[in-house]
Amino acid sequence: MTKNTKAIIWATVAVIMIIISSITYERQRPKRLATQKTPIVKITAIVPVQDQIPAPTQAATSTADTINTSTPASKFIPFRKPKPAPPKPLSYGDTVVKYASSRIQFNSSCQAIPSQMAIANLVTIMLDNRSNAAQTITVAGHSYSVAAYNYVLVALNQKNLPIHLLVNCNSQVNTAEILLQ
User: Contact at 8 Å (CB) between 176 and 115?
Assistant: First the structure.
């Protein structure tokens, strides 16, 4: 091989290495385009009222007029990751399934089903009112107003264990008992 052929081969290898390293560098560098505008999105969530069954969250996006008036054209907006959508509220059926082992159901005469329950500490229980009238349910001295055909989720956390928590419904006392372990 001549000196000229070796020089051409080494020059070609050097050019290929420069191209590969510049491609690698460009892929690792964050891409921000100063001319690209990030649209502003306004999200409106509907919070369910106590006496209604939870409705799915509705989202509304802003119009082009809102984007143009909210964002000056000369202002640079860096790229931002979109925020995750808020979790959708569970339907009544999904809530019953989720809290099946820690659910107390009350009928129109304040009878609790089950009337006794043993559960672990740091748990959330479901107080489920299946009557056509609002009921006041008291757990360990804390009162909860539960609308007709609705429920309340109550977090239980006690320091001294085990403990018996008594549950009252309206004027009836000790309709249920919870053993918190």
Answer: yes
Residue 84: which residues within 8 A CB-CB, separation 6 or more? none
Domain ranges in the chain are 38-89, 92-180
- 92-180 CATH, one of 3.40.1160.10, 2.40.10.270, 2.60.120.200, 2.60.40.420: 2.60.40.420
Write the pLDDT tens digit of every residue in 103-161.
999 999 999 999 999 998 888 999 999 999 999 999 988 899 999 999 999 988 888 88
Strands 135-139 and 112-113, by their bridges, are unpaired
DSSP string for the chain? --HHHHHHHHHHHHHHHHHHHHHHHHHHSPP--TTPPPPP-----PPPPTTSPPPPP---PPPHHHHHHHS-TTS-----PPPPPPPPPPPHHHHHHHTGGGEEEE-TT--EESSEEEE-SSEEEEEEE-SSS-EEEEETTEEEEE-TTEEEEEEE--SSSSEEEEEEETTEEEEEEEEE-
Per-residue confidence (pLDDT) for residue 45, from 0 to 100: 44
- Rounded to whole angstroms, the Cα distance separating 165 from 181 reads 11
